[in-house]
Design brief:
By secondary structure, this protein is an alpha/beta fold. The protein has eight helices and six strands; from the N terminus they run αβββαβαβαααααβ. A hairpin with a 2-residue loop joins strand 1 and strand 2. The longest helix has 18 residues. It is globular, with a radius of gyration of 21 Å. The relative contact order is 0.22.
């Protein structure tokens, strides 16, 4: 008589929505999308990036994006992590973000959203003063859009083919490194500290 031993394996089915979120995939108007949050310096060169599902609010990853910035100094010392000024679009306009930057001594140039302006005016004197906004400094925010355009020249970045978020992020980092290597006068030099700009962009999958 033969004896056979059969092992029993417990199978746990993961929620499809949770699984997609772990791989930075979210359902929006364009279907499944991935949102790339990018911080660049004053020349439009990438400093840090964060991936989230396309339906995630931009302001929720602001601190994580800035915490990932590490700019080596020309001499000795720890890498620089605090920019002089932050330029960002209306998606990052919130009291929490402004307070976070003010606590760290970082100048902020972020325009108010229309609903915030309306609510502040509706409350009258209780609405407080409008935040300081430097229109001349904000003109330099175009560098982050230029960086996205340069990154989208790589087909694997412009359209996501990777199933895993880690692989797509690796492709983004590789493309960012190529942009640094292509920059004239920066080969073999340290990354100087400069202004940091952050803004999101949606990449179709």
């Amino acid at each position: 008589m033969d004896l056979q031993f059969v092992e029993k394996h417990a199978v746990v089915l993961e929620d499809p929505e949770r699984s997609a979120a772990r791989q930075a995939l979210g359902r929006s108007r364009g279907g499944l999308t991935t949102k790339v949050h990018l911080a660049v310096d004053g020349r439009g060169l990438p400093l840090s990036l964060v991936l989230t599902p396309g339906n995630v609010n931009d302001s929720t990853v602001f601190e994580a994006l800035l915490d990932a910035v590490r700019v080596p100094r020309a001499g000795r010392g720890r890498p620089r992590t605090r920019p002089d000024r932050i330029l960002a679009d209306k998606a990052y306009s919130s009291r929490a973000i402004r307070a976070w930057c003010r606590h760290r001594g970082i100048a902020v140039t972020i325009p108010e959203r229309s609903d915030q302006v309306t609510n502040r005016r509706r409350r009258g004197s209780r609405g407080g003063r409008p935040p300081v906004f430097d229109t001349e400094a904000y003109k330099h925010r175009y560098v982050v859009e230029r960086c996205f355009n340069r990154l989208k020249q790589f087909r694997a970045v412009a359209t996501r083919f990777d199933k895993l978020a880690a692989r797509y992020q690796a492709g983004l980092r590789l493309a960012s490194l190529i942009l640094w290597l292509r920059e004239p006068g920066l080969a073999g030099s340290q990354r100087p500290g400069a202004r940091t700009v952050s803004t999101p962009d949606e990449i179709p999958s």
